[in-house]
Amino acid sequence: MNQRIVIITGANSGIGKVAATKFAAEGHHVVMACRNLERSRKALDDIRLQTESDQVELMQVDVSSFASIRRFCPEFREKHARLDILIHNAAYFEYGKKEYQLSPDGIELTFATNAFGPFLMTHLLRDSLKKSDDARILNACTDNVMHFLDPKRKIEFDNLRGEHRDNRPYSVYKMYGDSKMALLLLTFKLAEEYRTDGIKINAIIIPGVKLSTETRKKLSFRYRFIATIMNPFWLPVKVMANNYVHICTDDGFRSVTGQAIGKKNSILPPARQQSASDKIREFITFGYVPKYAHDPGNVETIWKMATELIDKPT
Ligand SMILES: NC(=O)c1ccc[n+]([C@@H]2O[C@H](COP(=O)([O-])OP(=O)(O)OC[C@H]3O[C@@H](n4cnc5c(N)ncnc54)[C@H](OP(=O)(O)O)[C@@H]3O)[C@@H](O)[C@H]2O)c1
């Protein structure tokens, strides 16, 4: 087996940490790209101890900040001649915040963390990925995007820079789903753009996965309560972490790109959303990609916004 160089954002807890452990245990070189070095050093020590690997390192990045990403990427390129696997796992989600928050770049915080930050990081690491003979990017998405099976559901494109922060109801839960839909739209478009470089890019549609105690502590009381009740019914973290590793290393996925991948590592087909029976089946199974994600107008809107945002000097 060839050793691959892997970046995992948010590798200090939850799925990211368990995936980092598995990559390290399999002999790969893992870069844990985390925002809080103090918290993450403990995770680094745990992983090194558990795997007896000296091939795990920690680098600081806040994926909600363009300046931080612009610091991280050259630092990575200085240290490593290529990048084989990039996993955008870090996310800001449902912590029960009531007020609209902006990132340092003036972007709604959920979008900055879950969509535009990963987009910039992907863009800045493109050359490193090109040097791999089997480069793969995996975007951590969520089955929350299935809300887009409802034809009325739309991304609030007009409210991603604080435009309506004072005069429109704000739901971080909805913004989270919107931001992950944006990530899915960007996944499809990036796959086309990067095809000629041999870089594959897919999204994994993650269902409820058990939240670690440390993750639950970040939630507001209400959501901590919900997560505590639901936790026994959710998938073990290890299952999803194994899926990350499988999609990023298995030969079966070597030429797969531009796909949404479900919890059993199957490629999700587009939803038809035509007959009543389609709609019921698609809603119940959560096994289809909502039409919204393949709509060229939506792809174009998010692509234009993302490229304009990252082109601005920070
Ligand atoms: N668990 C689920 O049920 C579920 C369901 C659907 C999708 N997902 C997706 O799965 C992925 C992993 O989630 P998880 O359940 O493992 O949650 P988690 O344990 O909270 O992991 C999220 C990680 O992201 C990091 N992070 C957040 N904001 C960041 C930023 N600005 N810069 C750098 N890192 C940042 C967190 O770091 P800190 O420790 O510093 O906060 C944490 O390490 C996420 O993309 C999530 O949306 C999870």
The helix-strand sequence is: EHEHEHEHHEHEHHHEHH
Unique bound compounds: NADP nicotinamide-adenine-dinucleotide phosphate
Low-confidence stretches: none
What does the oligomeric state look like here?
A: single chain
State the helix count: 11
Overview of the structural elements:
The chain is of the alpha/beta class and 314 residues long. It has a single domain (5-311), classed as Rossmann fold. Helices cover 44% and strands 11% of the residues. The chain has eleven helices and seven strands. The chain has a seven-stranded parallel sheet with strand order 3-2-1-4-5-6-7, sandwiched between helices. Strand 1 (5-9), helix 1 (14-25) and strand 2 (29-34) form a beta-alpha-beta unit. It is globular and about 55 Å long. It starts with a strand and ends with a helix. The mean pLDDT is 95. Residues 9-10, 12-16, 34-36, 39, 62-64, 89-93, 113, 140, 142, 206, 208-209, 211-212, 215, 234 line the site of NADP nicotinamide-adenine-dinucleotide phosphate (NAP).
Which features would summarize this protein structure in a list?
single chain, 314 residues, alpha/beta, Rossmann fold, seven-stranded parallel β-sheet, 11 helices, binds NADP nicotinamide-adenine-dinucleotide phosphate
Briefly summarize what is shown.
The chain is α/β, with parallel strands linked by helices. 44% of the residues lie in helices and 11% in strands.
Secondary structure topology:
Blueprint: E1 5-9, H1 14-25, E2 29-34, H2 37-51, E3 56-60, H3 66-79, E4 85-88, H4 109-124, H5 126-130, E5 136-142, H6 172-194, E6 200-206, H7 213-217, H8 221-230, H9 237-249, E7 260-261, H10 276-285, H11 296-311
Parallel strand pairs: 1-2, 1-4, 2-3, 4-5, 5-6, 6-7
Bound molecules: NADP nicotinamide-adenine-dinucleotide phosphate.
NADP nicotinamide-adenine-dinucleotide phosphate is lined by residues 9-10, 12-16, 34-36, 39, 62-64, 89-93, 113, 140, 142, 206, 208-209, 211-212, 215, 234.
